[in-house]
Structures are given as structure tokens and as C-alpha cells.
Design goal:
Length: 238
């Protein structure tokens, strides 16, 4: 469950409102913010799903975030939604084992997916997760696109390349994004972008974002909103 939901649940309300640790109103899920030129009036954690039957019943477009564990998926979602702790950011990689759905402006869902191929998760659980993710991508016809993150310093591992390839096969649009822009200098950035472009066979160099410095969020929001506006009639499924 999202930490925001846990902390703000009814059982904690009195402490939150009157105690020493009361949270300022601007940090709650309902504060209005503009991020990268996009106005966000509401963000709600809706639910977690561990199987296809657990997906939200509400038919809204979905954009999912995928990539290796620790690449910065949850941090990027927080940065995009202008929230600090709504999506759980892990100090220990590989903690997310479910799909977490966040409803933005009551118009669409951003979906946090488990990290790809995390070595410390037992093989069977890892296999189960990859089957579940593949099933979700293949069968959820509300999924309008998948943001796949690759650390700008690593250029993409074999498992990233394989995963992106298998998602492309389903017909789901993949937006390749380089993460952790603040971790590299200009020449490392140029090298990293070139490598990612080659590894993933991209027509153009990918966008590189930083959730810490908030770089690239304007372009990313534009790309996400564009993907949401494109209905893919060819995708069959749930
Ligand atoms: N410097 C820097 N650190 C980042 C950035 N994005 C994420 N991090 C850090 O990277 C670590 C992992 O971030 P998460 O957002 O939890 O990564 P994740 O991909 O969701 O990881 P899993 O949930 O384990 O799959 C955390 O310590 C973050 O603070 C970034 O843009 N810059
Ligand atoms: Mg995460």
C-alpha cells in the first residue's frame, strides 16, 4: 500500500492533524500543482494489483512505468505528479511486487510496475512477475503506453533490451527514457544517449530526466499526454 495512504488513513488522522508531526497541507495528495506546464488538481492512490483480476474496474487510460529495480521509476512518478512521497521510493531495491495505480486529475492512471529482473528476488517469484507484467501489457487495452526507464550511466542491460523488445511485440507503444540526468556530466550524457539510442534502435536520442533536479518533466508530460490521446484500436484484450 502507498505510504501516503498508510500515513493518512483514518486511524492516523488525529495525530496527523494535531500532533507534532502534522503534515503541511501542501504535501497531501490533494494539493494543486503545476509540473512541467501540466496542472495537477488531484492525485489519488487507487489500488495495488497482484493479478489481472485486481486491475481497477474504472475504464481510464493507463500509462505504466517499467525498468530495472532502482532505476528511478517511483521517484519519477512522484516528480511528475508533484508529490514527494506518494509513490513508495525504495532504499532497498526490488521491494515493489505489485502494480500500483495512481489516478491523476480523475482522467487517467499512472501505474508503478515492479522492477525488471531483480536478482535478489527468487527465480520463481521473478518469473511469476515477468509473466504477470507481460500479461498486463498484452491484455490491458486501457494501457496507452509504457515509459521504460534506463539509467543514463548504464546505457541498458541485456534484460532491458529483451524486455523492451517483448513489449514492442505486443503493440504497446514504448517511450524510452534515460533517468538520473543529475548523475552525469555533459560528455557522459552525450555518450549515454548515443548508447541507449543504439541499444534500443531508436530513431532519435531519448529524453533524459532527473527526478532530483526536475529536468525533462515538461517534455515527458507532453509525451505522456500525447500517448494518452492515442487510442490503439489494434490492441485487443481485457
Ligand atoms: N540522483 C538521483 N537519484 C535518483 C533519481 N531518481 C531516483 N533516484 C534514487 O534512486 C533510488 C531508487 O529510486 P526508486 O524511484 O525507488 O527506483 P525504482 O525504479 O522505483 O526501484 P524499485 O521500486 O526497486 O523497482 C532512490 O534512492 C532514489 O532516491 C534521480 O533522478 N537522480
Ligand atoms: Mg519503485
Amino acid at each position: 500500500m502507498s505510504p501516503e495512504v498508510k500515513k493518512n488513513g483514518p486511524q492516523n488522522a488525529p495525530e496527523r492533524l494535531v500532533g507534532k508531526k502534522a503534515r503541511p497541507l501542501k504535501e497531501t495528495a490533494q494539493a494543486e500543482v503545476t509540473v512541467g506546464g501540466y496542472k495537477i488538481t488531484s492525485v489519488e492512490f487507487v489500488k495495488s494489483a497482484v493479478s489481472l483480476s485486481g486491475l481497477p474496474k474504472e475504464r481510464l487510460p493507463q500509462i505504466a512505468f517499467l525498468g530495472r529495480s532502482n532505476v528511478g521509476k517511483s521517484s519519477l512518478m512522484n516528480a511528475l505528479m508533484g508529490r514527494k512521497n506518494l509513490v513508495k521510493v525504495s532504499s532497498t531495491p526490488g521491494k515493489t511486487h505489485e502494480l500500483n495505480f495512481f489516478r491523476v486529475n480523475k482522467e487517467f492512471f499512472l501505474v508503478d510496475l515492479p522492477g525488471v529482473g531483480f536478482a535478489k528476488v527468487g527465480n520463481s517469484l521473478r518469473d511469476e512477475m515477468s509473466v504477470f507484467i507481460r500479461d498486463y501489457v498484452e491484455k490491458c487495452k486501457d494501457l496507452r503506453g509504457l515509459v521504460y526507464l534506463v539509467d543514463i550511466r548504464h546505457g541498458g542491460h541485456a534484460i532491458d533490451i529483451e524486455t523492451v523488445e517483448s513489449i514492442r511485440e505486443t503493440g504497446c507503444p514504448v517511450l524510452l527514457i534515460a533517468s538520473k540526468r543529475d548523475k552525469v556530466n555533459q560528455s557522459e550524457l552525450a555518450k549515454g544517449l548515443k548508447l541507449i539510442q543504439q541499444n534500443f534502435d531508436l530513431e532519435e536520442k531519448p529524453l533524459c530526466v532527473s527526478s532530483v533536479k526536475k529536468n525533462g518533466l515538461d517534455q515527458l508530460w507532453q509525451d505522456i499526454l500525447y500517448a494518452i490521446s492515442q487510442k490503439n484500436e489494434k490492441r485487443e484484450g481485457l
